Amino acid sequence: MKNLMITAVLIAVTMFGSAMAGNVVITGSTTVLPIAQAAAEEFMKANPTVNVSVSGGGSGFGIKAIIDQTCDIATSSRFVSQNEIGMACQNNVLMVPHQVALDCVVPIVHKNNPINDISLDQLKGIYTGNITNWKELGGPDQRIVVASRDTSSGTYEVWSELVLKKERVFPRALLQASSGAVAQLVAGNPHAIGYVGIGYLNEDLKGLTVNGVKATVDSTLDGSYPVSRSLFMFTNGWPTGNALRFLNFLGSPQGQALAEREGFVPIYKLN
């Protein structure tokens, strides 16, 4: 009887371990990518039988993947559109949002650019082609090189809504496929301007204040920074198994500390 009980316990433990083993496929936003990668590394350390694969491609790419049921979690730096909800319904997919962090979209220039502050109206003027020279903003007599995200990007969607007020970016703007590409372009061109999530700021870039407000944790949480947003992960229905465990980890103080370490704003005060 004793040996039988031990055998039963071993079988139960083995079955539970097998249930917790497996893969979690995450894809989508390049803005959310650093958070997802950092969380995946820590999650796999604590759960060595689980493999979490993370890739970018843009918010639209991730949302399409969850609609097509080719990933477990879609990352997005914007909410889903009505059109995407309609396509999900046609595929019998129920899009469930999970807020994982907050973010500021920060206008960036080369570190040697003398401009420190810019208004929303000036940003709109630059990106619609009505302001073309830095001297119009008190800078040098140089043509502004405009870098923008492509239209499938969630970062572009937020920029379009809050800065451009749904007007189109002017045709000479250099469209980039990722936030990293925008940061690299601006860091290498003293006359360029772009925009990235706050987590992409580095010593080679200067983040401008907008309407006199600096992008910080406090100005994001209290709503005073004018270009801020929520960052999401979407699942098909309420998650289960390892996907649920991963999302619970990311929402925990440890997971939110990772988001803050990557330069983003946690969804609640950690201290």
What is the domain total for the residues? Answer: 2
Detail the poorly predicted runs: 1-19
CATH class designation of the largest domain: Alpha Beta
How far apart are the first and last residues' alpha carbons, in Å? 53 Å
According to CATH, the fold-level topology of the largest domain is D-Maltodextrin-Binding Protein, domain 2
Helical content, roughly? Answer: 25-40%
What's the gyration radius in Å? Answer: 21 Å
CATH superfamily of the largest domain: Periplasmic binding protein-like II
Strand content: 15-25%
Nearest-integer average pLDDT: 90
Name of the CATH architecture of the largest domain: 3-Layer(aba) Sandwich
What shape does the CA trace take? globular
- SSE arrangement, N to C: HEHEHEHEEHEHEHEEEHEHH
How many DSSP E strands? 11
SSE class = alpha/beta
The biggest beta sheet reads: 9 strands, mixed
Q: Helical stretch count?
A: 10
Describe this structure in words.
With 271 residues, the protein is an alpha/beta fold. The protein has two domains: 2-102 and 230-261, Periplasmic binding protein-like II (D-Maltodextrin-Binding Protein, domain 2), CATH 3.40.190; 104-221, D-Maltodextrin-Binding Protein, domain 2 (3-Layer(aba) Sandwich), CATH 3.40.190. It is 38% helix and 24% strand. The chain contains ten helices and eleven strands. The chain has helices at residues 2-20, 33-46, 59-67, 82-90, 120-127, 154-162, 179-187, 217-221, 241-251, 253-261; strands at residues 22-28, 50-57, 73-76, 95-110, 117-118, 145-149, 174-176, 192-197, 205-207, 209-210, 228-236. Strands 1, 2, 3, 4, 6, 7, 8, 9 and 11 form a nine-stranded mixed sheet that branches. The longest helix is centred in the first third of the chain and has 19 residues, at 2-20. The radius of gyration is 21 Å and the shape is globular.
